[in-house]
Specification:
The structure holds 2 protein chains of 2 kinds. Chain A is an alpha/beta fold. In chain A, 39% of the residues lie in helices and 25% in strands. Chain A has a 6-stranded mixed β-sheet, sandwiched between helices. In chain A, strands 2-1-4-5 form a 4-stranded antiparallel β-sheet. In chain A, a hairpin with a 2-residue loop joins β9 and β10. Chain A starts with 5 loop residues before the first strand and ends in a 7-residue tail after the last helix. By secondary structure, chain B is mainly alpha-helical. In chain B, α3 links the parallel β1 and β2. A 4-stranded mixed β-sheet of chain B has the order 2-1-3-4, with helices on both faces. Chain B is flat and about 105 Å long. Chain B starts with 8 loop residues before the first helix and ends in a 7-residue tail after the last helix. Chain B is built from 25 helices and 4 strands. The chains are: A alpha/beta, B mainly alpha.
Chain lengths: 262, 685
C-alpha cells in the first residue's frame, strides 16, 4: 500500500518562552491526509496551525511524536521530505532585487534540476501563472497579486506531491485571494495532497474535503463539513467552530490538567 | 518528481553564493558603502583637508594691512631689515608714527589697572588706543635700557579684529626671524665659533627603507584592514541573514532540499567576498592617494622606497583574521530577527573584534605561540612582523590552525542557528519588551558613538584649529550623528514622528520662562560656588593653565564669536543630539530616571575632561529633566546657552559675577523659575 502523503502521530511541540514559561503550541496531534485531498486546518490565531505546518515542512523539529510525509519520517530524512514538498505561507517574501525568472531558476537549481529541464519548466510556469509579462522586472516592483503568483510558481516548481500552505490568502486582496483559491482547487485535479491552514471560515467551507478544527494546540475534531455539522448539530461552520471550541474549553482542564502550566 | 536529480552540496553552495553575490551587486547601499565611498572619500578627504589648511592661511596672508612703526630709536640697519621683512611678509602699508604724537605711553611699564568693565576709562589704554587709530597694529622698538646693543619691541594690536591679529603675527614672525639670524651671526663671530657646536649630534637609521616602511605599515594595516573588512562585510551579512529573515524569504529557503550547512556556507562565502572586495578597494584607493602625495603613509608614500611586492605577500597572513571576521558578522546577523536588530548587534561586535588588533601598537610585543591563537591578535602580530620582513613558521602554522578552528566553530553555530526555532517562533509575544530593549540599546549605542566621535574626530579637529574644530564638531559631527541616530531608530509598533522623537514641539510659556529664570542662579552656582570648591580639592594642573595654544586661540576671539561658538552652538547641537536623539531613544526603553542618568553620564563623558565631568554630567541631568518636564528641547537649549555664555565669559574675565546682580539675585530668581516649572505641562508626552 502506498504511504499516506501526510500522517502525524501524537505530534507535540513545546516552546520555552522567557515570559510565559513553557508553551504547549501543539499537543498530541494525530492527522492523516489522503492523496488528492484538500485538508483545511481551521483555528484562531495562536491555535498551533503554523507550528504544525512548520513541523511537517521540517522547519521545526517536533518535541515528541512523529510526522511523516509521503512515508518518510520528517526527523529521519528532512532533505528527502523537502524534495517532495511544496511550502508556501501568506507572509512569504521574494528577493526584492531578483527578477521572477531569476527566482524560479534559483530555486529550480537548488532542487537540482538540470539546465535544460529547468528552462523548460520555468517557461511552462511563466505561462501557467501568466508571469511572463513581468518576468524580467525586479520583484520589488511587483504588485501583491503578481508576487503571489511568483510565490505559487516557486512552490510547485519541482512538481511536489504534497503542498503545505500556511494561511495562503492572508494579506491578499480579493482578486489575488480568489486566484489562490482557484489554484488550490486546480491542485486537487492534479492529484496533489494539499494541507492548508486558515482562520477564514468561508475558504474552508468552499475548498476543503475535510476540515480539522484546532485550538490551543489540540485537534478538536476532524471530518467533512457534513460530519462536523452532524457532530455538533449546527448548520453554519461558524457555529460549528464555536461549539467545538466551547466544548473543548469546558473539557480541557479536566482532561489534561498539567498541560497548561508554565 | 520521483526521479529528481540531486546536486552535490558543493554545487548547491556555489548556487547560493552566486545568488547572494548577484543580489549584493544590485544593492545600491552596499555598493555605495563598499566601492564608491572608499574610492571617492579618501582622495576627497585628504585633498580637502590639505586645502582647508592652506585656505585659512592664504586668506590671512592676502590681507592688506596697515601698521604704524615707532622705530626712530632703533639702529638704522635693523630698522631697514625690519621694514624689508615686514614688506616681504605680505601686503602691508608701513606708516611712521607722526612726530607730533606723544609716544611715552608705549613704554609705560605699569600695567593698566585691570578692572574689567571700565577699562575704557584707563588713561594709559586710551592713549594707546589713540596711537593705534585706524591702523591694525603698532610696532614700537627701542634700544634696551640694559645694554646698548640690544633692542626691545612691543606690538600693540586689537584682539577683536582678525586683521589686527594677523598684523601682530607677522611682526612677531619677522622679529623672531631677525633675532635668530642675529644670534647665529654672533655665535659664529665668537672666537672658536658657536660654543654649542662643540658637541654635535646626528642620528642615522641603518634599517633598510623596505623594513622601515614595512614596519610603519605593519602598525596600521591590521587595524585598518580589519575595519574595512568589517564595514564591507557588515552590509553583505545584514542583507544575507537579517535582511532575508526580515524579508520572509529565509523560511522558503529552509524548506528547500539543501542542508543548513550549505545555506550557512554559501551566505558566509558571499559575506567574506564582499568584505575582501571592500578591503581591496580601500587599499587601492589609499595606495593611489599615497602615491599622489595626498596623504603621507609609511610604505606607500612618495619619498620612501615603498614596499616590494614580495613583502605584500605578508598580507596573506591576515587572511585567517578576515575569514574569522566574516564568520563573526554572519553569526551575529544570523541571530538578528530584523535588519535593525542586526545593525545594533553588529556595532559592539565590530568594536570588540577590533580591540585585539590593537596589540600591534605595542612595539615590544612578540608574536608568541600563545598570542597567535588569540583571535585577531595573532594574525595582526604576524602581519606586522611579516611586513617588517620577519617570518616565523611555527607561530604562523599555529595561527592558521587556530583561526581555522575558530571560524569553523562559528560556522557550526551559524548552521544550527539557521535551523533553529528561536527566530521563527514567539517573536510577537515579546515584541513589546523587545521594542523597549531595542530602543534602549539604540540610545546607548548612539550615545557611545557620539562620545567616541567627539574623542576621535572632534579632538583631532580641535587640535588642528580650536575654534574651527569646535565649530565643525558642533555643526558638522553632531548633526550628522543626530541624523544617523534618527534614521536608525527602531521602528516601533506605533511609529513616532521625528518631531515628537526629538521633542521639537514648543513648550508652554511658563516652562520656558521658568527655565530662563534658572540661568543666573545656575551660572552663579557654577562660577562662584562650584569652581572655587573644585579648585581647592582638584586644582587644575599648571600645564593646563599655561597651555598657550589653547588659551591664545580662545582669548583671541571677539565676544560675539565666543558666545556663538561656546554658548549658542553647543546649546543647539548638543541638545539636539543628547536631549533629542539620545534621550528620545533612552526614554522609550528605560524608566525616566535611568534614561536621565544614562544620557547625563554620556554627556559628561563626551566633554572628555576629568575637571569637567561632574559639572557637565550635572548640567546634563538638569537639561534632560527640563526636556522631559516640558516635552520640548527649547528650555534646555536656552538654559544651556545662557549658562555656557556666563561661565565662559566669566572664565575669561570678560565679565565678572562677583558682587554683580547675578550673584545678588540669581539664586532668588531660581525660586520662581522652579515654581513655574512645577506648573503642569500643556500636554504630556
Amino acid at each position: 500500500m502506498q504511504a499516506l502523503p501526510i500522517r502525524t502521530t501524537n505530534l507535540c511541540k513545546t516552546f520555552d518562552d522567557p515570559k510565559r514559561g513553557t508553551v504547549h503550541a501543539v499537543r498530541d496531534l494525530n492527522l492523516e491526509c489522503n492523496e488528492g485531498e484538500i485538508f483545511g486546518l481551521l483555528g484562531p490565531n495562536g491555535a498551533g496551525k503554523t507550528t504544525t505546518l512548520r513541523m511537517l515542512s521540517t522547519i521545526l523539529a517536533p518535541t515528541s511524536g512523529e510526522a511523516e510525509l509521503a512515508g518518510i519520517r520528517v526527523s529521519d530524512d528532512p532533505l528527502e521530505v523537502r524534495r517532495r514538498l511544496g511550502f508556501l505561507s501568506g507572509s512569504t517574501g521574494l528577493y526584492p532585487r531578483l527578477t521572477a525568472r531569476e527566482i524560479l531558476e534559483y530555486f529550480g537549481r537548488l532542487h537540482g534540476l538540470d539546465e535544460a529541464q529547468l528552462q523548460a519548466r520555468v517557461e511552462e510556469l511563466l505561462d501557467t501563472f501568466t508571469i511572463r509579462p513581468f518576468a524580467d522586472g525586479r520583484c520589488e516592483s511587483l504588485s501583491t497579486g503578481q508576487r503571489q503568483r511568483v510565490s505559487i510558481a516557486r512552490a510547485v516548481l519541482h512538481d511536489p506531491p504534497v503542498l503545505i500552505l500556511d494561511e495562503p490568502t492572508t494579506g491578499l486582496d480579493i482578486l489575488a485571494a480568489s486566484d489562490m483559491i482557484d489554484f488550490i482547487q486546480s491542485r486537487k485535479e492534479a492529484g496533489t495532497c494539499v494541507l492548508f491552514s486558515t482562520h477564514i471560515l468561508s475558504e474552508a467551507e468552499r475548498l476543503c474535503d475535510r476540515i480539522g478544527v484546532i485550538d490551543q494546540g489540540r485537534l478538536l475534531a476532524v471530518g467533512s463539513l457534513e460530519e462536523l455539522r452532524a457532530q455538533t448539530g449546527k448548520e453554519w461552520l461558524e457555529d460549528v467552530f464555536r461549539a467545538l471550541v466551547q466544548d473543548a474549553g469546558t473539557e480541557a482542564p479536566a482532561a489534561t490538567p498539567p498541560a497548561n502550566e508554565g | 518528481m520521483s526521479s529528481t536529480p540531486t546536486c552535490s552540496p558543493g554545487q548547491q553552495t556555489w548556487i547560493l553564493w552566486r545568488c547572494e553575490i548577484r543580489q549584493l551587486l544590485r544593492d545600491r547601499r552596499a555598493l555605495f558603502a563598499g566601492v564608491l565611498l572608499p574610492a571617492l572619500l579618501y582622495p576627497l578627504l585628504f585633498w580637502s583637508q590639505g586645502k582647508l589648511e592652506n585656505v585659512a592661511e592664504g586668506i590671512m596672508a592676502e590681507r592688506e594691512l596697515t601698521m604704524i612703526l615707532a622705530l626712530e630709536d632703533v639702529d638704522a640697519d635693523l630698522n631697514a631689515e625690519l621694514r624689508a621683512g615686514l614688506e616681504a611678509s605680505g601686503d602691508v602699508t608701513l606708516v611712521d608714527l607722526a612726530t607730533d604724537q606723544d609716544a611715552t605711553s608705549l613704554w609705560d611699564t605699569e600695567e593698566p589697572a585691570s578692572t574689567p568693565g571700565d577699562s575704557q576709562a584707563d588713561p594709559l589704554t586710551l592713549a594707546r588706543l589713540e596711537l593705534l587709530g585706524e591702523s591694525h597694529a603698532l610696532l614700537a622698538g627701542r634700544r634696551s635700557t640694559l645694554k646698548d646693543d640690544r633692542h626691545e619691541f612691543r606690538v600693540f594690536y586689537n584682539v577683536q579684529s582678525d586683521d589686527s591679529r594677523e598684523a601682530r603675527g607677522r611682526s612677531r614672525d619677522v622679529i623672531r626671524e631677525l633675532a635668530s639670524r642675529t644670534r647665529k651671526a654672533r655665535l659664529d663671530a665668537l672666537p672658536g665659533g658657536d660654543p654649542g657646536a662643540h658637541l654635535s649630534f646626528e642620528s642615522i637609521d641603518v634599517a633598510s627603507d623596505e623594513d622601515k616602511s614595512g614596519a610603519g605599515l605593519g602598525r596600521m594595516l591590521p587595524l585598518f584592514g580589519l575595519m574595512m573588512l568589517l564595514t564591507g562585510g557588515a552590509f553583505a551579512a545584514l542583507g544575507a541573514f537579517a535582511g532575508e529573515r526580515e524579508g520572509k524569504t529565509l523560511e522558503t529557503l529552509l524548506v528547500q532540499p539543501i542542508p543548513a550547512r550549505v545555506v550557512a556556507l554559501g551566505k558566509y562565502g558571499a559575506v567574506l567576498c564582499a568584505g575582501l572586495a571592500t578591503l581591496l578597494i580601500n587599499l587601492i584607493s589609499l595606495g593611489i592617494c599615497a602615491s599622489m602625495g595626498l596623504v603621507e603613509m609609511p610604505g606607500l608614500g612618495e619619498g620612501s622606497a615603498g614596499l616590494p611586492p614580495s613583502r605584500m605577500l605578508a598580507g596573506f597572513l591576515y587572511l585567517p583574521a578576515c575569514t574569522l571576521a566574516a564568520a563573526l558578522l554572519s553569526l551575529f546577523c544570523g541571530r538578528a530577527r530584523t535588519y535593525r536588530e542586526g545593525q545594533f548587534t553588529l556595532f559592539p561586535v565590530m568594536l570588540l573584534a577590533l580591540l585585539p588588533s590593537l596589540v600591534v601598537m605595542q612595539p615590544d610585543l612578540e608574536a608568541s605561540l600563545l598570542l597567535c591563537i588569540v583571535p585577531f591578535a595573532g594574525p595582526a602580530l604576524l602581519l606586522r612582523d611579516g611586513l617588517a620582513g620577519q617570518f616565523a613558521i611555527l607561530p604562523t602554522l599555529l595561527m592558521f590552525a587556530s583561526h581555522g578552528l575558530w571560524t569553523w566553530l562559528i560556522l557550526e553555530r551559524l548552521k544550527n542557528l539557521l535551523d533553529s526555532e528561536r527566530t521563527l517562533s514567539s517573536t510577537d509575544l515579546t515584541a513589546e519588551a523587545g521594542q523597549r530593549g531595542l530602543s534602549a540599546s539604540h540610545g546607548k549605542t548612539w550615545a557611545f558613538v557620539g562620545v567616541l566621535g567627539v574623542y576621535l574626530i572632534g579632538s583631532r579637529l580641535q587640535q588642528w584649529n580650536l575654534a574651527w574644530g569646535l565649530a565643525l564638531t558642533l555643526w558638522g559631527l553632531l548633526p550628522i550623528l543626530t541624523a544617523l541616530a534618527l534614521r536608525t531608530r527602531p521602528a516601533p509598533t506605533r511609529p513616532v514622528a521625528v518631531k515628537r522623537f526629538l521633542s521639537l514641539s514648543l513648550p508652554s510659556g511658563a516652562h520656558t520662562l521658568g527655565a530662563v529664570l534658572l540661568i543666573p542662579g545656575l551660572s552663579w552656582l557654577m562660577v562662584e560656588i562650584y569652581l572655587p570648591f573644585q579648585s581647592r580639592i582638584l586644582p587644575l594642573p599648571q600645564s593646563v593653565l599655561e597651555n598657550e595654544t589653547l588659551g591664545l586661540a580662545l582669548t583671541q576671539l571677539s565676544t560675539p564669536v565666543l558666545i556663538f561658538l561656546m554658548a549658542i552652538s553647543p546649546a543647539i547641537c548638543e541638545e539636539l543630539f543628547f536631549r533629542g536623539a539620545i534621550l528620545g531613544s533612552l526614554r522609550r526603553g528605560l524608566t525616566p530616571l535611568r534614561a536621565l542618568l544614562w544620557q547625563a553620564m554620556f554627556f559628561g563623558a563626551a566633554h572628555a575632561s576629568l575637571y569637567r565631568i561632574l559639572p557637565t554630567a550635572g548640567l546634563g541631568l538638569l537639561l534632560g529633566a527640563l526636556t522631559l518636564r516640558s516635552a520640548s528641547l527649547l528650555p534646555a537649549i536656552l538654559v544651556h546657552a545662557g549658562y555656557n555664555a556666563v561661565v565662559v565669559l566669566a572664565g575669561m574675565e570678560r565679565i565678572s559675577t562677583d558682587g554683580t546682580w547675578l550673584a545678588t539675585f540669581g539664586p532668588w530668581l531660581a525660586i520662581p523659575g522652579l515654581a513655574l516649572l512645577a506648573l503642569p505641562a500643556k500636554k504630556r508626552d
